[in-house]
Amino acid sequence: MSKKGVLLVNLGTPDSTSVPDVRKYLREFLWDKRVIDIPAIPRWLLVNLIIAPFRAPKSAKEYEKLFTERGSPLKFYTEDLTTLLQDSLGSDYKVVYAMRYQKPSIESGLLALKKEKVEQIHVIPLFPQYASATTGSVIDKVMEITRKWQVIPDLKFTAQFLEDELFI
To answer: Most CB atoms closer than 10 Å: which of 86, 117, 127, 145?
Structure first.
């Protein structure tokens, strides 16, 4: 039996609550054309000259309220979920997680699965319902990365799970 991979993908989080890290996160997140759906030049101006410079200090203060000793709750809960799913699925699977924006990147997650020589990768964006700016963006990024590979594994995507019994 061939080993299968699971890539859990969450939205992302700044590396820390510092203003530069929050600004970096905001720029990457808001630069995504699925998040702000306007042409590149106006989007660049909006993100880099208006939103990121002015929003980052305010957002950094909000992130300070959320981060704990373990760091970002979004990140450590995703790590915990990854561990629980790995334990549940056993050694026939390799479960890794990634963030759509920031670290660990989708590319690093896919490369970890490639290193394990998995033949099938099930990508699960951790958003219960499909939206272009979330699940659509994850699918775009996975395809952008894997289309450059010489051998592309069998890819499966879960587009939404809001009506799944286990989720409910």
So the answer is: 127
Q: HSE (CB half, 13 Å, CA atoms) of 82? A: 22
How far, in Å, CA of 57 to CA of 20, rounded? 9
Q: With contact defined as beta carbons under 8 Å apart, do 142 and 110 qualify?
A: yes
Is the Cβ–Cβ distance between 9 and 98 less than 8 Å? Answer: yes
19's tokens: 């203003």
SS3 per-residue string spanning 14-33: CCCCCHHHHHHHHHHHHHCC
pLDDT band with cut points at 50, 70 and 90 for residue 100: very high
pLDDT 10s digits, 124-146? 999 999 999 999 999 999 999 99
- Statement: residue 1 has pLDDT above 80: no
